[in-house]
Design goal:
Structural class: mainly alpha
Strand content: under 5%
Shape: globular
Largest sheet: none
Number of helices: 6
Number of domains: 1
Mean pLDDT: 92
Low-confidence stretches: none
Order of helices and strands: HHHHHH
Length: 150
Amino acid sequence: MHDPVLGGRPRLIIPALGAVYSGAWEAAETILRIVAGLALVTHGYGKILDPFGATGMVEGIGFYPAELWSVLLSITEFFGGIFIAIGFLTRPAALAACVVLLVTVYFHWILLGQGWPGAEKSVIWATVMFFFVVRGANRHSVDAKIGRQF
């Protein structure tokens, strides 16, 4: 059987830990998805209360019509975060969040000239979202309960 954690890796120094790592993989993945989704919800909460509040920012990045992009940003962060946390339409929600986060990487790294220090969190979160674009949700998700994944 292929082990997603240990498959193809060198043998463990303490072989008994293999069962621990294999058993914890699914729980760790579920926790990461829930925390990442809730972090997006928290970040998007203020935006969803004022969906046009980011108009100036998105216009400054070059997105027109700014009102549309501001609303889409609000929806993506707030509702996309909820979808990711519960594991519903996980891949498309994570893809939308990943795109938003890559734009924030561009904003901080290039437009504001902050380089890695300014974009670091966005790079990490974009990578987490990319993981869920590729992986989808596991059996602890709404996607699994309804028997469908995108």
